Amino acid sequence: MNQIEILRFALRGLLANKMRSALTTLGILIGVAAVIMLVAVGEGSSQSIQQNIQRLGANTLTISPSFSGGGGGGMRVPAGGGGGGNTGPRTQARDLSLADAKALTDRTLAPSVKSVSPVVNASSTTAAYGAASHAISQFVGTYPSYFEAVNKPVAQGTYFFNDDVLAARKVVVLGRTVVAELFGTVDPIGKQISVSGVPFTVVGVLKEAGSTGMQDADDVAVAPLPAVQQSLSGFGSLGQIVVQATGAEATTAAQAEVTAILNQRHGITNNNPDYRVLNQATLQETVSAATGTFTVLLGAVAAISLLVGGIGITNIMLVTVTERTREIGIRKAIGAPRGAILGQFLMEATLLSLVGGLSGVLVAFVGTRFTVAGIEPVLVPSSVVLALGVSLGIGLFFGSYPANRAAKLRPIQALRHE
């Protein structure tokens, strides 16, 4: 008996019990679809998190104070270490200053640093244009290098320049949310807005960034540092220093250089600095590893349903063998070889898995077109191949016992079966 005849007998056997075959196929379908969908959700969430991190720049270091509000006499009380642990007491902490930022631009001491952007944040800023007003959640004073360092390109107009910083010009670049609240459909470029009573001229609009968690990344305004200090924040300490490395591969070296410079300037000798350094590249690697583990875990959990589907194949095929015992006896009595019987039942089990697997792939493909819990699933081709391959393997593995049992039946016993 050739393979075509074995396939024909297998199809006839499956079609003789359409409902049973459909239910068995459904089990495999659910298993395959669940594996592909959950892996897609895991991959989608991973990419979403990585995109949020990359918005800040993959080769960016963010330096911020590591102390909380002050104690008596203006002395700062440390809240925790920044760059290198918390191994000893510190009696006094220093603010981040413009002098610190300038020191980080020394090419001799920091050859891996491309740009340095000191940052101040003006609090409680309300912008107004005509009858419209809006409380801006983040009003930043900084240098032009900030736009590239934190990956905030300008979609309309332009950003400000070093001349604007030197002259302390009151110009501002707005995020999309601020523009929508103040101007609606009116072109904001060249218009003058009032920020807490201080006039600023709009020179640019940032490219839409979207929300990051609960914070609207587009509810932002960026202006020259001296202008913000003179009018809104005062000439105090810096809120942050944003450092851009010469490349993603140089980020770790830049962090070491920055740490050495600041430790020397702040008199840090006990590995307990008064600042912390956030390395975006390291953070992205950590998040990638964590979300990768999460995705594998989701796939493993979903794979349990494939195992259940395989057990279902075993049960159905055992019932099928029992019901067709007399048929098997007749075929063996007229000369059907053991391999033909074995091949037929293995073929039936494999076909059930194949149809279920392909249907599961189709269902999963459709499912990834929809947003799941706020996450856009990303179809992973390797998960499709793996799930389909496993479903076929399950058909062969779980179908082998019933098929082997059918092939071993002796003709005389099979013919006597009622």
Features:
two-stranded antiparallel sheet; single chain; 418 residues; 52% helix; 12-stranded mixed β-sheet; alpha+beta; elongated
Could you please describe the fold and organization of this structure?
The structure is a single chain. It is built from 13 helices and 16 strands. It has helices spanning 3-15, 18-54, 98-103, 145-149, 162-166, 176-183, 225-233, 251-266, 280-323, 325-333, 338-367, 381-408, 411-416; strands spanning 60-65, 67-68, 77-78, 113-122, 125-129, 132-136, 138-142, 154-157, 171-174, 192-195, 198-206, 211-212, 215-216, 220-224, 240-245, 275-279. Helix 9 runs parallel beside helix 12. The radius of gyration is 34 Å and the shape is elongated. It starts with a helix and ends with a helix.
Which helices and strands, and how do they pair?
Layout (H helix, E strand, L loop, with lengths): L2 H13 L2 H37 L5 E6 L1 E2 L8 E2 L19 H6 L9 E10 L2 E5 L2 E5 L1 E5 L2 H5 L4 E4 L4 H5 L4 E4 L1 H8 L8 E4 L2 E9 L4 E2 L2 E2 L3 E5 H9 L6 E6 L5 H16 L8 E5 H44 L1 H9 L4 H30 L13 H28 L2 H6 L2
Parallel strand pairs: 7-14, 9-11
Antiparallel strand pairs: 1-15, 1-16, 2-3, 4-7, 4-15, 5-6, 5-10, 8-11, 9-14, 10-11, 12-13
Helix pairs in contact: 1-11, 2-9, 2-11, 2-12, 9-11, 9-12, 11-12
Task: Provide a concise account of the structure shown.
This protein is α+β, with helices and mostly antiparallel strands. The protein has helices spanning 3-15, 18-54, 98-103, 145-149, 162-166, 176-183, 225-233, 251-266, 280-323, 325-333, 338-367, 381-408, 411-416; strands at residues 60-65, 67-68, 77-78, 113-122, 125-129, 132-136, 138-142, 154-157, 171-174, 192-195, 198-206, 211-212, 215-216, 220-224, 240-245, 275-279. The strands form three sheets. Strands 1, 4, 5, 6, 7, 8, 9, 10, 11, 14, 15 and 16 form a twelve-stranded mixed sheet that branches.
